[in-house]
């Protein structure tokens, strides 16, 4: 996965969980709530530090910090703060569960979470999901999806992808030819070949395959996927290809979709900013400005308001 490590949240030095717990207690105790104090603390601590604060809060006051925050806050601001307070894998599992429960399935969220993570990240999500919901993620996902899209996600979830290792150029040429033969070189498309290669090969190997594909076909594998495949499978395969090549660009495009159009896709906006803040949000915001000639901060300021806006802007960090 072509991640350019550039977190916007790195935690604070000289961290003191008891002091932060006391400051949060003071911000919520008595008449009114000091929302800015909550933002200042929780958007600058790493998730590991936030978990230590939560433990200190329970130890010192006999109370659940997340429950206290929920009782004091509301709306999308509450959603941001609760997301920040949740361990990363648990948060993503909650989002996966939510997007599959009830009427209909949010396939875009499935793609965003499952097609953009590394093999170790997927393994952690799978373990956490079964612990939280007493049900395998693959089983739940299979009941909510179908066809080649389901087969691709299943391959990803069961850990079919090879471990990272140096790319094998000869194998890359062979697999690039297989992709070409399964798509552009024939009438109709053999989606199973695309699924197998894009779900099984390591990201280093896929990068090499995509280079070889350009040599064979004269255009990119992403262009071929968009021409040969449609529906959710196209979106899923495209996400894998784009993230292998430039994950920051893929997430920047997803954020653009969340803040443009009729209304704001707040859940998507929150999920990406929170889940990428300790990984590569710094690179994503640079890519956003390069692609759209606008800063991510200015877009978020224009589409959100109040404490919700202040919390998101704090996560994005200075330009």
Automatic annotation (TrEMBL):
Keywords: Annexin, Calcium, Calcium/phospholipid-binding, Repeat
Gene Ontology CC, one term: cytoplasm
Keyword check for Transport: no
Sample GO molecular function, one term: calcium-dependent phospholipid binding
Keyword Protein biosynthesis appears in the UniProt entry: no
One Pfam entry name: Annexin
Domain free text: A pair of annexin repeats may form one binding site for calcium and phospholipid.
Family (UniProt): Belongs to the annexin family.
Protein name per its UniProtKB record: Annexin
């Amino acid at each position: 996965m072509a991640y350019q490590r550039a977190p916007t949240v790195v935690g604070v030095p000289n961290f003191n969980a008891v002091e932060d717990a006391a400051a949060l207690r003071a911000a919520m105790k008595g008449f009114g709530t000091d929302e800015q104090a909550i933002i200042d603390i929780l958007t600058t601590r790493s998730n590991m530090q936030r978990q230590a604060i939560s433990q200190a809060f329970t130890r010192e006051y006999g109370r659940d910090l997340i429950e206290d925050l929920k009782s004091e806050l509301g709306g999308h601001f509450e959603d941001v703060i609760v997301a920040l307070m949740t361990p990363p894998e648990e948060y993503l599992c909650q989002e996966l569960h939510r997007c599959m429960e009830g009427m209909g399935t949010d396939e875009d969220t499935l793609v965003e979470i499952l097609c953009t993570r590394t093999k170790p990240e997927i393994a952690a999500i799978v373990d956490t999901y079964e612990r939280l919901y007493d049900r395998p993620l693959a089983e739940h996902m299979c009941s909510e999806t179908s066809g080649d899209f389901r087969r691709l996600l299943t391959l990803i979830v069961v850990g079919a992808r090879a471990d990272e290792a140096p790319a094998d150029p000869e194998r890359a040429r062979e697999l690039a030819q297989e992709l070409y033969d399964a798509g552009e070189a024939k009438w109709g498309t053999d989606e199973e070949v695309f699924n197998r290669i894009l779900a099984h090969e390591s990201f280093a190997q896929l990068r090499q395959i995509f280079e070889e594909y350009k040599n064979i076909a004269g255009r990119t594998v992403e262009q071929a996927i968009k021409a040969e495949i449609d529906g959710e499978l196209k979106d899923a395969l495209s996400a894998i290809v784009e993230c292998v090549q430039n994950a920051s660009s893929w997430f920047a495009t997803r954020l653009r979709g969340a803040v443009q159009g009729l209304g704001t896709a707040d859940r998507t906006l929150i999920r990406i900013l929170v889940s990428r803040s300790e990984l590569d949000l710094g690179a994503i915001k640079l890519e956003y400005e390069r692609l759209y000639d606008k800063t991510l901060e200015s877009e978020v300021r224009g589409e959100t308001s109040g404490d919700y806006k202040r919390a998101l802007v704090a996560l994005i960090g200075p330009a």
